[in-house]
Design goal:
Length: 576
C-alpha cells in the first residue's frame, strides 16, 4: 500500500444480525496524502456510516464491520487494519491519525466549559501539553482557524459564539492532534452561505498548510465541487460512481449521479426566477409590516437592563395574494424574529403589523424547519391535522375529515396516512404533513422558516414544486425564510435582504439577484457555491457582523433609501 488510506469491500451492518442488515455494501476507495475525497449522496445512502467506520466510531452507534479491510498508514510508517483493531489501539488513532468534525457544533461542544478549556483538553489528551504550553498552543490553533481576538474568546462558552465561530472551534479541536486524515461530516449544512464559504476556504487553506488528507461528506454535490479532488457518489449503501471531480461532474456515467446533478438547484444569478405571479398594481396587500422593531433586554444592573439586543430594527414590507417574498441573510440577522413577530410568537417593541383576513380568522400559519420536531409523536395524522381546527373552535365531524383527506391528496399523501404516526413517514413526507396542517384553516399567508433546508436535494425539489402548485391553486402568499440562495431563486417573486436586524435591499427577485446593489447582498451572492464556480477560490474573510447589543436608550439614525430600478430599493450605506 502506497497511499494513506485504502478501504476494500467495506460492509457495515446494524442490529443483532448485522450481516442481514447491511447499510454499507462493499464500498472501496483510496485516499492519498493531501488529497480530498468528497462522498455525496442522500440521507440513508451510507455515506456517514462509511466515514465513521474509518475510526470505528460506528461501533458506538450499534454498527459492526461485517467484512472488508481499512488499511491506514500511521505516522510512524506502520500499516494498521482498522477493521480488525482492538479498542486500545483505536484510542490511539482517534484524533491523532483520524480527526473528526461533526455537522452540528453546538451538540458537539460541552455547554458548561469554556471553549478555551475544551481546546486545551484536546492538546492535553493528544500531545500531553499542560499549563502555559497548552494555553500557547490553543492561541496558536485559534489563529490558524482565523478566530479574531483569540485571547478574549478563550473565556467564551459555546452559546456565546455564532454557528460559524463554533464550527471553527470544532476544527481547532480536530487540528490539536495534527491528524493525517480529517473527516468532515456535513460540516457546513447548518451554516449560512457566507459562513459556509468561509469554512470551506478555511478547510482548503488548512489542507495546504498541513498536508492533511480530508474526507468531506455532504448531500450538496455543488458544494463539494469546489474542494474535492475526487468524488464518490453513494446510493443505498453502494458506491455507484467515483472518479476525478471534473469527470464526475462534467460527464456523469450513472443514472443516480445524473439525477443528483439535475435535482441540485443551480444558482444562476436571477436567470431561473419564476415569471408567474407578478404583482398587479390594483392588488391590495394581505399583510403590511411598517417600521417593525423587536428588542430583547440583556443583563441587569440594579434591576434595570444593561442594554438591549436590537434583533429587528425598522423593518417594513408588504405581501399580496399569490406572491412569495423571501427573506435572506445570515443567522442572527433577524429574519426568523421578523416571522415570529408576524405570528405573534415574539412581542414587538413597536411598529405596525396589519393582516387583512380574507379566507380565515387566523390568516397566518407557519411551517418550521424540522418536521419531526413539529409533530407530536404520540398523535396520529388525523389527530395532528384536526388539532388546529379544534383549537379554532371547529368540531371533529365529517366535514373536517373531508378537509383532511382533500389536503392529504393535495400534498401527495395517501388517505390511509390518517391512521399512521410521524415516525412512519420519511423526512419529506413529514414536511408535507406539516404543510397540510398549516393549510387546515385555509390561511391567507404561510410563513416557511427554512422549511426545505433539512431535506435531501431530490425531496427538496419535490416539496418546492408542491409549494408552487398549492400557491397557484389557493392564491397563498408565502413569507419564505432561507439561507439557500439557489432555492430562493426558484421560488421567490421578491427578495428582502436582511443584515444586522435591518432590511438593506428589497425588490423584484430577478433584479436583486442579477444586479445586487448593497455591499452585503454582493457578498452574499458571491459566496453561493455552484458547480460552475468550482475553480473559484474564496479568501478567508475576518469581517465580523456588528454587535446587535446596544446601550439603553440607543436609537439608530433613520434609514435612507435610494431607488435602484422598478420595484428595487437599496438602503444607503454609512460612509466610514
Amino acid at each position: 500500500m502506497t497511499g494513506l488510506l485504502s478501504v476494500r469491500d467495506l460492509r457495515v451492518g446494524f442490529g443483532q444480525n448485522p450481516k442481514a442488515n447491511e447499510v454499507v455494501k462493499g464500498v472501496s476507495f483510496d485516499l492519498g496524502p493531501g488529497e480530498t475525497l468528497g462522498i455525496v449522496g442522500e440521507s440513508g445512502s451510507g455515506k456517514s456510516v462509511s466515514a465513521l467506520s474509518i475510526n470505528r466510531l460506528v461501533d458506538f452507534g450499534g454498527g459492526r464491520i461485517t467484512h472488508g479491510s481499512i488499511q491506514l498508514t500511521r505516522s510512524d510508517g506502520t500499516v494498521l487494519d482498522v477493521a480488525k483493531a482492538d479498542e486500545k489501539t483505536l484510542l490511539g488513532i482517534r484524533g491523532r491519525d483520524v480527526g473528526m468534525i461533526f455537522q452540528e457544533p453546538m451538540t458537539s461542544l460541552n455547554p458548561v466549559h469554556t471553549v478555551g478549556a475544551q481546546i486545551e483538553e484536546a492538546f492535553r489528551l493528544s500531545k500531553g501539553l499542560t499549563g502555559a504550553q497548552a494555553h500557547k498552543a490553543t492561541l496558536d490553533v485559534l489563529g490558524r482557524v482565523r478566530i479574531p481576538d483569540a485571547q478574549s474568546r478563550l473565556g467564551y462558552y459555546p452559546h456565546q459564539l455564532s454557528g460559524g465561530m463554533r464550527q471553527r472551534i470544532m476544527i481547532a479541536m480536530a487540528l490539536a492532534a495534527s491528524p493525517r486524515v480529517l473527516i468532515a461530516d456535513e460540516p457546513t449544512t447548518a451554516l449560512d452561505v457566507t459562513v459556509q464559504a468561509q469554512i470551506m476556504a478555511l478547510l482548503a487553506e488548512l489542507r495546504e498548510e498541513t498536508g492533511m488528507a480530508m474526507i468531506f461528506i455532504t448531500h450538496d454535490i455543488g458544494l463539494v465541487a469546489g474542494i474535492a479532488d475526487r468524488i464518490m457518489v453513494m446510493q443505498n449503501g453502494v458506491a455507484v460512481e467515483q472518479g476525478e471531480t471534473d469527470g464526475v461532474l462534467d460527464n456523469p456515467q450513472h443514472d443516480y449521479t445524473r439525477h443528483l446533478l439535475r435535482a441540485v438547484p443551480h444558482f444562476t444569478s436571477g436567470k431561473a426566477v419564476r415569471d408567474d405571479g407578478r404583482r398587479a398594481e390594483q392588488q391590495e396587500p394581505i399583510v403590511k409590516v411598517d417600521n417593525l422593531v423587536v428588542r430583547f433586554p440583556v443583563g441587569k444592573a440594579w434591576f434595570k437592563p444593561k442594554g438591549a439586543i436590537h434583533a429587528v430594527d425598522g423593518v417594513s414590507f408588504d405581501l399580496v395574494p399569490g406572491e412569495t417574498l423571501a427573506i435572506v441573510g445570515e443567522s442572527g440577522c433577524g429574519k426568523s424574529t421578523t416571522a415570529r413577530a408576524l405570528l405573534g410568537l415574539n412581542s414587538k417593541t413597536r411598529g405596525e403589523i396589519v393582516t387583512e383576513a380574507g379566507r380565515s380568522v387566523r390568516p397566518v400559519q407557519m411551517v418550521f424547519q424540522d418536521p419531526f420536531a413539529s409533530l407530536n409523536p404520540r398523535l396520529n395524522v388525523e389527530a395532528l391535522l384536526a388539532e388546529p381546527a379544534i383549537a379554532n373552535g371547529q368540531r371533529r365531524d365529517d366535514a373536517l375529515r373531508e378537509r383532511m383527506t382533500f389536503l392529504l391528496d393535495r400534498v401527495g399523501l395517501p388517505q390511509d396516512a390518517l391512521t399512521r404516526y410521524p415516525h412512519q413517514f420519511s423526512g419529506g413526507q413529514r414536511q408535507r404533513l406539516c404543510i397540510a396542517r398549516a393549510l387546515m384553516l385555509n390561511p391567507d399567508v404561510v410563513v416557511l422558516d427554512e422549511a426545505v433546508s433539512a431535506l435531501d436535494v431530490s425531496v427538496q425539489a419535490k416539496v418546492l414544486e408542491l409549494l408552487v402548485d398549492l400557491q397557484q391553486e389557493f392564491g397563498l402568499a408565502y413569507l419564505f425564510i432561507s439561507h439557500d440562495m439557489a432555492v430562493v431563486e426558484r421560488i421567490a417573486h421578491r427578495i428582502a435582504v436582511m443584515f444586522a436586524g435591518q432590511i438593506v435591499e428589497l425588490g423584484e427577485a430577478r433584479a436583486v439577484l442579477s444586479d445586487p446593489q448593497h455591499s452585503y447582498t454582493k457578498r452574499l451572492i458571491a459566496a453561493v457555491p455552484a458547480i460552475e464556480r468550482r475553480k473559484q477560490r474564496f479568501a478567508v474573510d475576518m469581517t465580523q457582523v456588528p454587535s446587535l447589543v446596544r446601550p439603553p436608550g440607543f436609537e439608530p439614525s433613520p434609514a435612507q433609501w435610494r431607488e435602484a430600478g422598478d420595484d428595487h430599493r437599496v438602503r444607503v450605506e454609512d460612509t466610514p
